[in-house]
Give the backbone structure.
Amino acid sequence: MATKKRVNPRKTAGRLVIDTFKNAKAFSEKTAQPAEICKDLPLASSVIAYTITNMMEDDIFIKTEDNRFYFSQENWDKFEKRFNRIYWILLGIPIGLTILFFIIDIFLK
């Protein structure tokens, strides 16, 4: 028995929009889709427009000449890699400084 996919309330706007374009198989200029395919998402149209615009800056969504969009998995992977690198750096700096101050405190006693 096939089950219907439910919208996860924890999904971000970006993930919802990306999944919509992936489900529509919009991966090239030939298969590009209009932004209206996101109309059934539980998001305001301004949020969808903002999300697509932000992702266009990183070429995750690419706009065609006829105002359709397609999703670039390659650019998404690059973005995720860059985001994860920044995340780990931001996480590592406080941990590294805490260890450094702990070692300095031990040697100064």
Remarks:
- The longest strand covers residues 61-63.
- The chain has two domains: 11-71, 81-109.
- Helices lie at 13-23, 45-57, 73-108.
